[in-house]
């Protein structure tokens, strides 16, 4: 399939087009509401708390309420492995990018950490869920396991200059999203060895499923979780728009370092993932399918993680630079996410990823 045909199929796919327009339009609504004063200064923070403590945990958990098969299990395992290996790779290969830009000390370390750790949960998961559905959320939730481990260990140690603290270990494992992910993952993995019940699915066929498959055995419980899951994307996008509407762009736009960082974070890091995953897939060392590749790339093409920026501010590690890069990279991610979705759809048509 040539490039033009792939491009045509991408833009005639209503699911992809509607996901792109939904993301952009709802972010613009949030931006407009903040500019008009409809949304207050604290509105974005309140929305963020709702998304992170309620909507995203529900989204992560319900994504595991699906049958398990050999291919999905294999892909999930590869996504988990890459979600850990990739951070180790980035820790080593990010140094040259900022050494070339003649940064050093705290400035270089902050830029490096912010480049490695993106807002995969708050910014990434709602988008992959909107475009790639339950499987996208499943892969994204599993991919985030490695992210959480390194964010609360490596990033904290580097930014604080201290050893790992018990409080951070608690944050790592007692986070509602982490709990929902691990509970959902375990239930998904063991569904073949637990007691089953006979149910009639939506197609009218009778099948035996694990008793806790609430998508088929307890719709009265699954439905409220589905409603909560549905809040994740629109509320996250409104919060992003509201945040952008409350910040002055002047200083961030005039900072050349912030522009360079944004290029590395939103363009270079995803490209590195595409190149390495392509090599690993064609050599069958760690093959991933189209959906897994897309999820990983979108998750990595996100602005810096809020926790990482908070580290920079809390420990006085180039706090102003961290704030400027966060703003500029968020704006760039909003613009580039639709582009990445198109690029990934075109890559899917090449046949490199099954």
TrEMBL record:
Q: How does it sit in the membrane?
A: Multi-pass membrane protein
Places the protein is found? Membrane
Q: Where are the transmembrane segments?
A: 12-34, 46-68, 80-101, 113-132, 138-157, 173-194, 225-247, 259-286, 292-315, 327-348
Give the primary localization class. Answer: membrane
List the protein's name.
Answer: AEC family transporter
Keywords, comma-separated and alphabetical: Cell membrane, Membrane, Transmembrane, Transmembrane helix, Transport
Which InterPro entries did the record assign? Mem_transp_PIN-like (IPR004776)
